[in-house]
């Protein structure tokens, strides 16, 4: 290393090298001036093949792209490393999903990361936020593009450090790398099993550019560690596991699998002979104990009042009926939460919180009530018949068909193979998918923003999943979710490209509000209807075809299920947007009618099922 190189550039190169050694493979960069040292170092590292660099002009989209890359990378880790990853040199081993870094300049650029940071916080995704800043002498002086970035993300990050501007002193690279190691350990949750975002606020002084011609590969940095030392990030803390005595084997137990619950939820339900209520993004859908249309089946009082105990895994957020069940004072609730992570208990009714599933929980349940399971499964089969009949093949155009959005969700689910990934938007699409998933076979992997259940950044996150996962990826979004992050379609010709099909269910506004109390007020009077349409319905009238063309994305408008199935069977290259226009009027009446039909069918199916002996 030349002694005349700019200290900011030297420090940035050391940081980028260390990120690669500690397992970071993907870095998203939103260009700016103060972050120039990192930009140069990342460009050199990308040329050398030590990182994959992704450049985006919108920091909000960059944050969600990083989120998607991390989630997609976790899927790839589950399938084993790729050939290039397996052969590449690395320092510390990575446990679980690889962290992804995102780089911004100073000022409002940093604030634009906040939505993605909050989602990563609530879903435990390891993001490394590298935000450039002015040195301390320029803070609070009115200097351009300078604000207080220290602590900006508050409690949403697992670790935060304000790193002073390098000045070339002895040992400063060593100090920087030690801080980086702590940050990565916190991001991965290696000490507390609570992964999530971390924030390094990096001050840089001028000069912010290399003082010598650019290198074809990243230059060597003076080793801050003794030769031959094998560095690792902090080791995991030992966990005691769940105490098997914490659960009392009640016979009539349900398993509720929320977002991110994982396959253990399904395995537990099947081992114990318990019904399984699994959200689409739980990773636990399917299997013989899964209850279809469970949100409506819970409306069968003869069934729900029998429940004595619920085991909750993941983060259930989709269903008010599930939350009402979890809040019942006569129901014992056991929440399974990784050690160190906050547990999910919105009704504040959990009796027990355990940090893991004990092996004994997977032994056949001696006290399981087979009749209880049989009644739930009978209700499930009856509910599935109703949903199947209402969403089966129709010849009429989807723009006029009842339950059109459900039919679209079913077609998308059916086209998602077991090795595919489906990213589903919040609001109605994820709830529609919840109702139809499993009607046509075992689902593939479903990902959703359920940490905060927002619509923000879904296009960018889906693109990140497609880039990272190495699996066919599709997104199912509402029109407002798509338009909110339409900038996620923008990626330059020099950027890594991925194939992503985006199915947009366009009802020209926010139809989910019609299914809530606001829809009742809208239906009660003309004035209520006008108010609803203005402040909740929010029609936009956007023509998606020219919009997609402006971003260079493919576009198709389909009008019936046959056309939709054809588009799903042959996705175009790059970003392929498939628009399906469906009616918004009557959504509340449809939703209520379907719920009542399911409840009636499930109740009738349960009546003849007699209690079976306990096994």
UniProtKB/TrEMBL annotation:
Pfam families: TPP_enzyme_N
Entries under HAMAP family matching the protein: MenD
Organism classification: Bacteria, Bacillati, Actinomycetota, Actinomycetes, Micrococcales
Catalytic reactions on record: isochorismate + 2-oxoglutarate + H(+) = 5-enolpyruvoyl-6-hydroxy-2-succinyl-cyclohex-3-ene-1-carboxylate + CO2
Annotated pathway: Quinol/quinone metabolism; menaquinone biosynthesis; Quinol/quinone metabolism; 1,4-dihydroxy-2-naphthoate biosynthesis; 1,4-dihydroxy-2-naphthoate from chorismate: step 2/7
Organism: Xylanimonas protaetiae
NCBIfam families: menD
Keywords: Magnesium, Manganese, Menaquinone biosynthesis, Metal-binding, Thiamine pyrophosphate, Transferase
Protein name: 2-succinyl-5-enolpyruvyl-6-hydroxy-3-cyclohexene-1-carboxylate synthase
EC number(s) per entry: 2.2.1.9
UniProt cofactor note: Binds 1 thiamine pyrophosphate per subunit.
Biological role stated in the UniProt entry: Catalyzes the thiamine diphosphate-dependent decarboxylation of 2-oxoglutarate and the subsequent addition of the resulting succinic semialdehyde-thiamine pyrophosphate anion to isochorismate to yield 2-succinyl-5-enolpyruvyl-6-hydroxy-3-cyclohexene-1-carboxylate (SEPHCHC).
InterPro entries xrefs: MenaQ_synth_MenD (IPR004433), THDP-binding (IPR029061), Thiamin_PyroP_enz_TPP-bd_dom (IPR012001)
Cofactor(s) recorded in Swiss-Prot or TrEMBL: Mg(2+); Mn(2+); thiamine diphosphate
Matches recorded under Gene3D superfamilies: 3.40.50.970, TPP-binding domain (3.40.50.1220)
Family matches, as CDD domains: TPP_PYR_MenD (cd07037), TPP_SHCHC_synthase (cd02009)
GO molecular function: 2-succinyl-5-enolpyruvyl-6-hydroxy-3-cyclohexene-1-carboxylic-acid synthase activity; magnesium ion binding; manganese ion binding; thiamine pyrophosphate binding
Family: Belongs to the TPP enzyme family. MenD subfamily.
Every Thiamine pyrophosphate enzyme N-terminal TPP-binding domain range: 98-151
Top-rank EC class of the record's enzyme: transferase
One Gene Ontology biological process: menaquinone biosynthetic process
Segments passing through the bilayer: none
């Amino acid at each position: 290393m030349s002694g005349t190189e700019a200290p900011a550039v030297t420090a940035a190169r050391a940081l980028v090298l260390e990120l690669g050694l500690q397992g970071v493979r993907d870095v998203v960069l939103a260009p700016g001036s103060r972050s120039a040292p990192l930009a140069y170092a990342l460009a050199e590292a990308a040329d050398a093949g030590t990182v994959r660099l992704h450049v985006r002009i919108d920091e909000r989209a960059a944050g969600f792209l990083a989120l998607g890359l991390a989630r997609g990378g976790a899927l790839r880790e589950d399938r084993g490393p790729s050939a290039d990853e397996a052969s590449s040199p690395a320092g510390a081993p990575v446990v679980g999903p690889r962290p992804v870094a995102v780089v911004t300049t100073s000022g409002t650029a940093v604030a634009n990361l906040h939505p993605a940071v909050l989602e990563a916080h609530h879903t435990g995704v390891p993001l490394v936020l590298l935000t450039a800043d002015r040195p301390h002498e320029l803070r609070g002086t009115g200097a351009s593009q300078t604000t207080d970035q220290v602590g900006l993300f508050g409690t949403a990050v697992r670790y935060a450090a304000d790193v002073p501007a390098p000045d070339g002193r002895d040992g400063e690279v060593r100090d920087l790398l030690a801080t980086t190691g702590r940050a990565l350990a916190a991001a991965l949750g290696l000490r507390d099993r609570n992964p999530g975002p971390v924030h390094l606020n990096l001050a840089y002084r001028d000069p912010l550019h290399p003082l010598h011609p650019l290198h074809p590969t990243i230059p060597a940095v003076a080793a801050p560690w003794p030769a031959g030392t094998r560095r690792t990030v902090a080791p995991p803390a030992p966990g005691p596991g769940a105490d098997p005595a914490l659960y009392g084997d009640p016979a009539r137990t349900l398993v509720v699998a929320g977002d991110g619950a994982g396959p253990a939820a399904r395995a537990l339900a099947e081992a114990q002979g318990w019904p399984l209520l699994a959200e689409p993004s739980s990773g636990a859908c399917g299997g013989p104990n899964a209850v279809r249309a469970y949100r409506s089946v819970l409306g069968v009082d003869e069934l729900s009042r029998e429940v004595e105990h619920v085991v909750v895994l993941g983060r259930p957020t989709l269903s008010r009926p599930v939350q009402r069940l979890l809040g019942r004072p006569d129901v014992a609730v056991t929440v399974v939460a990784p050690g160190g992570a906050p547990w999910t208990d919105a009704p504040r009714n959990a009796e027990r919180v355990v940090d893991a599933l004990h092996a004994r929980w997977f032994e056949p349940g001696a006290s399981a009530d087979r009749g209880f399971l049989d009644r739930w499964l009978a209700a499930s089969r009856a509910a599935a018949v109703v949903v199947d009949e209402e969403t089966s093949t129709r010849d009429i155009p989807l723009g006029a068909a009842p339950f059109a959005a459900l039919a679209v969700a079913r077609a998308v689910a059916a086209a998602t193979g077991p090795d595919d990934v489906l990213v589903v938007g919040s609001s109605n699409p994820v709830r529609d998918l919840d109702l139809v998933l499993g009607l046509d076979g075992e689902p593939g992997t479903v990902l959703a923003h359920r940490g905060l259940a927002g619509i923000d950044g879904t296009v960018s996150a889906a693109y990140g999943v497609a880039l990272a996962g190495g699996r066919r990826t599709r997104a199912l979004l509402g029109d407002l979710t798509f338009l909110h992050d339409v900038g996620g379609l923008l990626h330059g010709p020099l950027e890594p490209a991925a194939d992503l099909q985006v199915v947009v269910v366009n009802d020209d506004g926010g139809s989910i509000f019609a299914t809530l109390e606001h829809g009742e007020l809208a239906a009660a009077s003309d004035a209520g209807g006008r108010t609803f349409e203005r402040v909740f319905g929010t029609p936009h009238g956007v023509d998606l075809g020219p919009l997609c063309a402006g971003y260079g994305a493919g576009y198709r408008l389909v009008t019936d299920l046959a056309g939709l199935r054809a588009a799903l069977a042959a996705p175009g290259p790059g970003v392929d947007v498939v628009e399906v226009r469906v009616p918004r009027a009557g959504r509340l009446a449809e939703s209520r009618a379907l719920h009542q039909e399911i409840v009636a069918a499930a109740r009738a199916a349960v009546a003849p099922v007699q209690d079976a002996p306990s096994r």
